[in-house]
Amino acid sequence: MKLSNALWILGCTKITLAMTTNQLIKEMGLGWNLGNTLECYGDWINGNTTKDYETAWGNPVTTEAMIKTIKSYGFKSVRVPVAWSNLMSSDYTISSELLKRVDEVLNYILNNDMYAIMNIHYDGGWFDNFATSEAESFTKYEKIWKQLTQYFKKYDEHLIFESLNEEGCWDSIWNRYSNSGNKTKAYNILNTINRNFVDIVRNSGGNNANRHLLLAGYCTDIDLTVDSAYIVPKDDRVMVSVHYYTPTTFTLLEKDESWGKVQYSWGNTNDVNSLKNDFNKLKTRFVDKGINVIIGEYGVTAGNKDKESNHKYITSVVEYAKQLGICPIVWDHGQYFDRSTLTFKDTEIGQIYKDLSSNYSSNNTSSNTNNNNNNNNSNTSSSEYCSGCTITGTGGDNSIWGWENNKACRIDTTKCSEEIKNSNSGNCVKAYAQCGGENYSGVTKCCSGKCTFINQWYSMCQ
Ligand SMILES: *[C@@H]1O[C@H](CO)[C@@H](O)[C@H](O)[C@H]1NC(C)=O
Ligand SMILES: *[C@@H]1O[C@H](CO)[C@@H](O)[C@H](O)[C@H]1NC(C)=O
Ligand SMILES: *[C@@H]1O[C@H](CO)[C@@H](O)[C@H](O)[C@H]1NC(C)=O
Ligand SMILES: *[C@@H]1O[C@H](CO)[C@@H](O)[C@H](O)[C@H]1NC(C)=O
Ligand SMILES: *[C@@H]1O[C@H](CO)[C@@H](O)[C@H](O)[C@H]1NC(C)=O
Ligand SMILES: *[C@@H]1O[C@H](CO)[C@@H](O)[C@H](O)[C@H]1NC(C)=O
Ligand SMILES: *[C@@H]1O[C@H](CO)[C@@H](O)[C@H](O)[C@H]1NC(C)=O
Ligand SMILES: *[C@@H]1O[C@H](CO)[C@@H](O)[C@H](O)[C@H]1NC(C)=O
């Protein structure tokens, strides 16, 4: 959903800018990855159009119908991995065609009231260069996010930015297997990337000041991310990302390799306990301390595994993650959902997701709000930025609102700072929001006239 469509006044389900990250995690329900699509990368890719890249790894061009179908299976969030280096100029300027195409795909998600996570994915592996040409790599990183934060800043909290995928680890600096080299130095790079990421976003204006952000864990590996060397930047709206393919001999391996022997089935008591033990580490290190966690990828990509085991794996990840308040986003590069026929290849998996997602539906919290909205004006649903700067109302997220042409509109704080300063006198509008028993309250803004309490979401100066 675009900010401009925010139904601020009409009820809780559309009130999106008031959410804490903790609330967001619940709202995000279960997620799905648009894998092997906008993140396709390769010197061999023929052609120079976004479509050439989007389809290079074998998936069809993404359509809104795909996203709507995914939604119908109960998913509420879609992660969109992107390779921004495709079609990029040598000074790191992102192709405007690519920006436009990513924007289109994000809109398939946002227009269907789902949450979207957009990242810099593998992107040809240039994150390795932080080990060899650190300064230049930071320059590229910052240039990319500066462009992205400008281009996408208009979107509300349904759009989440992710600092990077799983490439945040440098074995050439610190070998995680042999524990040789300089561990501090390796972690410092990722910690600095994540810190810079938060700073770039927060300083970029628009809705980015309050946007929820996802930070890559070290290698997005659970053990390496719960390590005390990993530092979460101080910020109210950041979450940590790990990926879960444990045991890889089951999830990834199709034939025996030097490093492992294929495991065809999964799901005995030991397997499940081991998964719980892994997730418990995330709970202790992050969730219990108020830092939310997203499992940005999990799933079985190997095609030759026992069917019941596949089902049990998915179900176990989802159920235990949700039990701990963690949001799981399944990796799907086409192995689960067939984007041509718009069905799950294994229809039982489709049904599993439907059943699972109905258990985690948070429409409960979003509907029982005794929404006695006196302000019955059908035009309140549209809200561009106000043309003027007169503040008439406030929102629980510190946002400020005006009222023009019978419509609510958001005050553009980039051009109205003087008026905002001047409005801090006279009567105060206290806007606070209650939703499903939770109180997001908090902000007080002032205006010179009388204030009228419209409903739990909105107050107005008159
Ligand atoms: C894309 O490729 C075509 C021919 O393959 C060429 O004519 C065109 O100039 C290229 N466009 C860009 C933006 O590189
Ligand atoms: C490891 O890296 C850190 C940070 O770059 C540095 O301060 C420290 O001196 C290094 N340690 C060794 C043993 O090189
Ligand atoms: C949904 O939740 C109920 C109650 O906790 C549980 O009995 C049921 O198995 C769950 N369904 C799925 C598909 O997880
Ligand atoms: C929905 O709300 C009811 C009553 O408030 C509560 O008992 C139930 O557990 C909630 N269900 C979910 C899925 O949140
Ligand atoms: C939430 O809404 C979905 C779809 O309308 C419905 O299937 C589900 O039962 C609802 N859940 C609750 C807890 O009301
Ligand atoms: C609000 O407006 C709608 C559409 O015009 C109308 O159907 C409804 O009765 C109105 N509600 C109140 C409380 O006036
Ligand atoms: C909604 O806005 C349109 C155009 O701005 C106007 O013609 C219409 O009367 C408005 N409706 C209400 C209910 O205010
Ligand atoms: C929510 O916060 C407001 C403002 O602080 C307070 O007046 C109200 O009682 C709170 N409601 C609940 C249910 O805590």
Automatic annotation (TrEMBL):
**Gene Ontology molecular-function annotations:** beta-glucosidase activity; cellulose binding
Q: InterPro entries annotated for this entry?
A: CBD, CBD_sf, GH, Glyco_hydro_5, Glycosyl_hydrolase_5
Write out the GO cellular component annotations.
cell surface; extracellular region
Where does the CBM1 domain start and stop, copy by copy? 427-462
Q: Which family does it belong to?
A: Belongs to the glycosyl hydrolase 5 (cellulase A) family.
GO process annotations (BP): glucan catabolic process
Sorted alphabetically, which keywords does the UniProt record give? Carbohydrate metabolism, Glycosidase, Hydrolase, Polysaccharide degradation, Signal
Name by which UniProt lists this protein: Glycoside hydrolase
Q: Where is the signal peptide?
A: 1-18
